Amino acid sequence: MKNNNKDIDILCVGEVLVDFIGHQTEVLINNTRDYHRYLGGSPANVAMNSTRLGLKSVMVATVGNDGFGEYIFERLNGVGVITSYIKQLENKPTSVIFVSRTDGTPDFIPFREADCFITEKQISKELLSKTNIFHTTCFALSKQPAQTAIIEKAKEAFHLGCKLSIDVNYAKKLWNSQEEALVVIKAYCEFNPLVKISEDDMFRLFEQELPHEDIFNFFHSEGVDIVCLTLGSKGVKLSQKGEEIIYMPAMQIDVVQDATGAGDAFWSGFLFAYIKEKPIEKCLEVALQLAALKLQNVGRLPDNINILSELL
Q: 3-state class of 212 per DSSP?
C-alpha cells in the first residue's frame, strides 16, 4: 500500500465544523440545556486521529474567516495536521452543528454555511500524486459545489494511483433527496473505495432494515471490493468481494461516555493499519481498539493513542 514517492498518508476532504455537544446525557436536543464546544466533522476527526497515530495527514476544507475558523486552525495545527489547503471565506461563517450526547446515534441540527464551498482548485494534481489515501464522507458529498469538486478529484486521484475511502454517513436532512444521495454514492463507488458504513446509516439510506448480505452485495455490485459494516456495541462485519464475511465483536467497556466520533476513531484505526499493509483482521482489531478508547472519552481521543502503533 505504502508508496515511497507518496509522502502524504491521508488526504481528508470534506467538512470541518464546530460541534456543540450537549452536556446533559441521554436527552434529545429539546431538553439539552448546555453545550460544550469541540472540533467536529468526520474527515477532520480522521485527519487529527491519523496525525496523532504518526501518519502525515492533510485536511482540505472550507471555513469562515471568523472565531470558529480560527479555533479550527488552532486545533488542527496543534496536533500537526497540514492545514494549508483549508480555504477561509469572508462572506460565509464556519459551519456549526448542535449534537445531543448519547451512547447511541446522536440527534443533531446542522447550520451549514462555509463547509460545502470546497472547489477543485484546492486539490492540485501535484497534491494527489503524493497521496496514498483520498478520504471523504457522504456529508461532504451532500451539497454543491463540494459534491462535484470531490467526485471529479476522486476520479483524478484514482487514476493517479490513490486508494479511495468513504464514510457513508448518510443523513436525510443533509440531502435534497434519497435518490440524489444514491446516484452520488454510486458515482464514488466506481473508483473502488474502502467503504465504511454503519447499520444506522444503511437504515436511513434504504429506509428499511436490510440483511447484512444485501448491504454488502449492493456495494460490491457498484464496484467496491472491501465493505466495513459497523454494528455499534455488537462489533463489526467486513466483506471482501468473493470471500467469507469476517465478524469481530466490539471490545467490552464499562461506561460509554460519548458516542460522537466513535465511527471516525474506528475508521482512523482501520486506515492506519491498512496504510501499514497489515492483514484485514489486524486492521479491524486496531479499529475496534481505537473506537473503544473514543467511547470512554468525551470530545477528542486521549493523548496516548500513538501506543496503538506499537501493537502493529
A: helix
